[in-house]
Specification:
alpha/beta; Aspartate Aminotransferase, domain 2; 16 helices; binds pyridoxal-5'-phosphate; PyrdxlP-dep_Trfase_major; PyrdxlP-dep_de-COase
Length: 473
């Protein structure tokens, strides 16, 4: 074996497993090993291709149209609907926002109306495209408030947004009502079904009540749905659907104003790798509607068991009853979620901490996969043990020295020297100007949690800046 390949294998051994059903964030596992193996082969087969020009790689055009056609079924798309395969949820959302803005060029100060629980990628799109986000508070169960959303829609609103479901809490916004409100106001409505679309589509077919969330709702003009989440495809694939070709058109970009090839792009990418598309196409072809029905049964079955199991564990509770495959847990004052997350990691389970938000306590986020079903008992046992271990040590004490430094920092004025002092105090300083990754996260998470959103952003940007430093030989 080549030296580089064996080094790559060594390096990868540090990572969280992408398969096996125990990593409950960032990755999604169908448990279908043969499909995954074939999909990886498809990715490799297409590793060198480029979707920039469908006349050079016509197979990519065919795969994309077939994938979008499959997705149309899932979102009850009208015959007029069209779609675009993108590199991920964020790109789908960025395009949806850019397209909505550019469909209304006469609006000089465009706004976008969002439930406060909308995915952060909308704020990224707002920042990139100069659209002002209008964040509308949500109700007690973290769902969008229809009246307040409607009230926020104005003549300058280029897009309203709803989640199906929201990432943080896993609840579906009242989309039927939001659609009616958006229609009445003449505002396009984007449904962010990035994480939940693929599974919500099958929830009703297996007899679970599902709120209306897709193109069956008049007023919904675009929907994003990720392949690389509950489509269980390799990473780098999502779909943005529009109700009509006219709605999609502003997302296309063309330029003949240079001496090279006339550049025509359907997405933010130009050179468009064929690997993720081929991997997604192969996965969806192999699993099919029947397969996805089974996967939805397994995944939502696992969620039911986790919900029932959490009820029996003293110290943690649901933040809200989940509408789909995402579970958010809160801890009572005997322990904190950050220690529970570390303890889960020691037991081979990766769960994702979410920070304090709008006066709500921090939570643990579980993106449950179909492959988790056979491991639910083990998961609940690990959770029970982790909560007990976290209760044993009690809530994490914030290091007073570090807290003092934090209190003195202004996010907008964070200097390199400030940050160096903080890294030193936190024991995360590497060689000069470089940071290391911590083993246990609780101490750091507690500090970030105490920092407030603006300082948290500034600290993490500074930290990433120190992590991503060139290694020169
Ligand atoms: C994951 C997610 C996104 C962003 O998708 P990426 O693929 O991570 O870029 C957007 N919205 C929701 C609700 C998501 O869960």
């Amino acid at each position: 074996m080549s030296g580089a390949l064996s080094r790559l294998q060594e390096l990868q051994a540090q990572d969280r497993p992408t398969h096996g059903g125990r990593t409950l964030a960032y990755v999604f596992d169908s448990g279908l090993e043969e499909v995954d193996r074939l999909a990886a082969e498809a990715v490799a087969m297409y590793a060198g291709t480029n979707g920039l020009d469908p006349s050079a790689f016509p197979s990519m055009l065919i795969m994309e149209n077939e994938l979008v056609g499959f997705a149309c079924d899932l979102v009850e798309a009208p015959p007029t609907a069209v779609g675009t395969v993108t590199s991920g949820g964020t790109e789908s959302i960025m395009l949806a926002v850019q397209g909505a803005r550019d469909a209304r060029p006469h609006i000089r100060k465009p706004t976008m109306v969002l439930p406060a629980t909308a995915h952060a990628s909308f704020l990224k799109a707002a920042a990139y495209f100069g659209v002002e986000p209008v964040l509308v508070p949500v109700d007690q169960e973290f769902r969008a408030e229809v009246g307040a959303m409607a009230h926020a829609m104005s003549a300058d609103t280029v897009l309203a947004v709803a989640s199906a479901p929201s990432y943080a809490h896993g609840v579906v916004d009242p989309i039927a009502w939001l659609g009616a409100a958006a229609l009445a106001k003449g505002v396009p409505l984007h449904v962010d079904a990035c994480i939940g679309g693929w599974i919500l589509a099958y929830a009703e077919r297996i007899g679970r009540v599902k709120p209306a969330w897709n193109f069956s709702v008049p007023g919904v003009t675009s929907i994003s749905v990720d392949l690389h989440k509950y489509g269980y495809t390799p990473k780098g694939a999502s779909i943005l659907l529009h109700r009509t070709p006219a709605d999609r058109k502003p997302t296309y970009f063309a330029s003949a104003a240079w001496p090279g090839y006339t550049m025509v792009n359907t997405t933010m990418q130009s050179t468009k790798p064929g690997g993720p598309l081929a991997g997604a196409w192969l996965t969806v072809q192999s699993i099919g509607h029947e397969g996805y029905l089974d996967l939805a049964r397994s995944c939502l079955g696992a969620v039911d068991l986790i919900v029932a199991g959490v009820d029996k564990i003293e110290g943690v509770d649901l933040a809200v009853r989940p509408d789909s495959s995402l579970v958010a847990l809160v801890a009572d004052d005997t322990c904190d979620v950050f220690t529970i997350a570390d303890e889960m990691a020691e037991r081979g389970w990766y769960v994702q901490p979410q920070m304090t938000w709008h006066g709500h306590p921090p939570t643990l986020h579980l993106s449950v996969s179909a492959a988790t079903l056979p491991l639910v008992d083990e998961c609940l046992e690990a959770l029970g043990e982790s909560v007990a271990a976290a209760q044993e040590v009690g809530p994490v004490e914030v290091d007073r020295n570090i807290l003092k430094i934090l209190r003195s920092l202004r996010p907008e004025k964070l200097t390199d020297a400030d940050f160096d002092a903080l890294l030193q105090a936190a024991g995360l300083a590497g060689d000069t100007g470089v940071a290391t990754l911590p083993k246990r996260m609780a101490q750091i998470n507690v500090l970030l949690n105490a920092s407030g959103p603006a300082l948290r952003e500034a600290l993490l940007v500074a930290y990433l800046d120190r992590l991503f430093r060139p290694v020169r030989v």
